[in-house]
Amino acid sequence: MASYSESWMKEYNEAVKLCDDITAMMSGRNSVSSGPETQRHTSSIRRKITILGTRLDSLQSLLSKLPAKQAISEKEMNRRKDMLANLRSKVNQMASTLNMSNFENRDRLLGTETKPDDMSRTTGLDNNQLVGLQRQIMKGPLILVACFRTYCL
Q1: What is the distance between the alpha carbons of residues 128 and 44, in angstroms, rounded to a whole number?
Q2: Any keyword Protein transport (predicted)?
Q3: What integer pLDDT is reported at residue 145 of this predicted model?
Q4: pLDDT mean by block of 10 residues, the chain; 153 residues
């Protein structure tokens, strides 16, 4: 059975391959014919950048859990953090090249990891209270849509 450390390195190497694939796609972006083909190509690049960002978030989470699962030296931990930070920097550069501003603000859109998870928020609530919580959560986006319509249309 592979150790957690080896699994992390395997996933990191897959993320590097995906990053290289995206870089190659971006280099070949100008050679794609115009019109819908260009849009499809750019859309594919953006999709892969988003997938890579999610993988990097997963790697970050696994890295924080790694010392508890398996003893690795502090030097090795710092090396892996640097590797991850460098790859994330590359991804952010690619995203900014494609004007993917929403990628950089993803934490603001989705919320941070320090947010209490939904299960802990619902512990001890009865059915009526759960429905009330659902309505409260669902009102947030509706208010944003109403504000958008008021100011932008």
Answers
A1: 44
A2: yes
A3: 52
A4: 75 94 83 76 89 92 76 84 92 82 54 56 79 75 54 50
Residue 95: name the closest of 54, 36, 38 by CA. 54
Q: What 3-state DSSP class applies to 3?
A: coil
C-beta atoms surrounding 143 within 10 Å = 9
| Predicted pLDDT at 118 | 61
Give per-residue burial for 24-53: e unless 16+ CB within 10 Å, then b.
Answer: ebbeeeeeeeeeeeeeebeeebbebbbebb
Q: Do 93 and 22 meet the contact criterion of CB atoms below 8 Å apart?
A: no
pTM above 0.85, yes or no: no
HSE-CB at 13 with a 13 A cutoff on CA atoms is 6
Place of tokens 């208010």: 143
* Contact predicate 28/22, CB 8 Å: no
